[in-house]
Amino acid sequence: MAPDFSATSLAGTTVTLSQFRGQKNVVLFFYRGHW
Q1: Most buried by CB count within 10 Å: which residue of 1, 9, 17, 34?
Q2: For residue 24, what pLDDT is reported?
Q3: What's the CA gap between 17 and 2, in Å, rounded?
Q4: How far apart are CA 34 and CA 17, in angstroms?
Q5: Cβ neighbours for 20, distance < 8 A, ≥ 6 positions apart
Q6: Which residues of 14-33 are buried (b: 16+ CB within 10 A; e: fewer)?
Q7: DSSP secondary structure code for residue 6 in this structure
Q8: Distance of CA 22 to CAs 1, 9, 14, 25, Å?
Q9: The pLDDT of residue 35
């Protein structure tokens, strides 16, 4: 299980991993930007 953390969504709102607790699946995707 991943530790709880917060991130900014594409909509500009802050979301935390704990908001999705109890959901069936959570997929995290990190994009570095420019290579």
Answers
A1: 17
A2: 84
A3: 8
A4: 26
A5: 26
A6: eeeeeeeeeeeeeeeeeeee
A7: E
A8: 12, 20, 19, 9
A9: 64
8 φ, ψ (degrees, to nearest 5): -95, 130
Q: How far apart are CA 16 and CA 6, in angstroms?
A: 4
pTM of the model: 0.56
Q: How far is CA 30 from CA 7, 27, in A?
A: 11, 10
13 Cβ contact list (under 8 Å, min separation 6): none
pLDDT in tens, the chain (35 residues): 778 989 888 899 999 989 988 888 888 887 777 76
